[in-house]
Amino acid sequence: MAPVAEALGAQLLGPDQLTDADLSLVWENEVVGGLRRPDLHNALDVLITAAETDLGVSRRDMDRTQKQAAVTLLNEWGAFTLRRSVEDVADALGVSRFTVYNYLERADAT
Prior knowledge:
Elements (H helix, E strand, L loop, with lengths): L1 H7 L2 E3 L9 E5 L2 E7 L6 H13 L8 H13 L8 H9 L3 H13 L1
């Protein structure tokens, strides 16, 4: 489960660590652990890191096509529903907000 938790940006918990807000993992009708959702304050960073992993290249080494692919992935994952996400993604990728909006428009057209 650790790779799944890491990919989601969640924290893997033992059964004794769970709170009502956590997601229980049940095996044969017994709670064997759980997942704690990521803090939304760093959710965008987690998603950007996941996009880097998915594309196999760090954001500073991405070419234009890879940046477009990263924006497409982030859009599919709901990253742009977060406040200031376009600005933060633009900063992370080293492009302008206008460029991110162009990449989003291009992704919607395909």
